[in-house]
Amino acid sequence: MTNWTLAARAATMNPSAIREILKLTDKPGIISLAGGLPSPKAFPLNEFTAACNTVMARDGAAALQYATSEGYAPLRQAVADMLPWAVDPDQVLITTGSQQALDLIGKVFLDKDSRMLVETPTYLGALQAFAPQEPIAVSVASDDDGILVDDFAAQAGTGANKARLAYVLPNFQNPTGRTMTEARRAALVTQAAELDIPLIEDNPYGDLWFGEAPPAPLTARNPDGCIYMGSFSKVLAPGLRIGYIVAPKAIYPKLLQAKQAADLHTPGFNQRVVAEVIRDGFLDRHVPTIRALYKQQRDTMLAALEHEMAGLDVKWTRPAGGMFLWVRLPEGVNAQALLPEAVERNVAFVPGAPFYADHPDTRTLRLSYVTATSNEIRTAIAALAAAIRAHQARG
């Protein structure tokens, strides 16, 4: 029998709590509020069919050939044009989803025991992507308006222990759904610049606003001090795995080299299809239909929570966009312990603890409102409330 010796970093690679919970949805009758999956109702199937045919008829051989590591030039130009500050397409690196963007950033900027700052809580996938580099992830206190700037400064570290970067999701954050205010953004960018700490701004949900668009990106305020990440997964289709990085020109070459080592380039066919779909302003016409769908489903979930959680000491966020809301359970109720009881009642959610870099709040959980129907949402929230009451009754 062969004895395989694993690298030390392999010990940092753990299964995604979300992916493991998604396996529960194989059980017949389960209503999953766990996954961060966009609604298939929002996929523009006809436009993709037409774009695939056009790409193959017009330049099929090139679409199926190896391509440049930077990405398809018209798509890079389209990304630069859609952003609300001056971006040179030479700053745009097309990635295989924004998850790869996180991986590349971690490889380029983090060493073992490098200090990095994250929100409380933060995106679980980012913690997983950075983990193989073995950094020290430090949670910065956060509230409904985002990261607390005073604590950001307090946690920044000094000398060799100074934070290498800070990772933030200002818009409709995963997992909480909160949005950073204009005042908080301005203060954070100023403080980060004064402390010379680069900001990694992850913005996969920013176009999914329900009432009004969120404030300007952090990167627009200090382009040389930020790396911006975006994705077409939430506004077109996640299966294509098309994301992007916008980086200062001084650090772009190293990110490009990391990309070349990882996979040479993001699939050229997929890039060309996306470029074809979004030309002529398609996103301006399509994204409002996603907003309307998700807003209706968010409203359904908020109404169901108000009705079903009456008399329980349950709190939740009221997101102004995006795909998620965050729930805090009553005193003494552990979300991980509650999950199997909820599954018995045919509803699944994601316990909140894995979203914390340290000191997890075990009373929290994340709900997604975008894939279930309105009737399923109402049924699922009623089942969740019943599970909480049964859990409490047993003490």
UniProtKB/TrEMBL annotation:
Gene3D superfamilies assigned to the protein according to its UniProt record, in alphabetical order: Aspartate Aminotransferase, domain 1 (3.90.1150.10), Type I PLP-dependent aspartate aminotransferase-like (Major domain) (3.40.640.10)
Keywords for the protein's UniProt record, in alphabetical order: Aminotransferase, Pyridoxal phosphate, Transferase
Cofactor section: pyridoxal 5'-phosphate
UniProt GO BP: alpha-amino acid metabolic process
Domain Aminotransferase class I/classII large: 51-384
GO molecular function, one term: pyridoxal phosphate binding
Cited InterPro entries: Aminotransferase_I/II_large (IPR004839), Class-I_PLP-dep_aminotransf (IPR050859), PyrdxlP-dep_Trfase (IPR015424), PyrdxlP-dep_Trfase_major (IPR015421), PyrdxlP-dep_Trfase_small (IPR015422)
Pfam families named among the record's database cross-references: Aminotran_1_2
Record-stated family: Belongs to the class-I pyridoxal-phosphate-dependent aminotransferase family.
Subunit structure: Homodimer.
Name of the protein described by the UniProt record: 2-aminoadipate aminotransferase
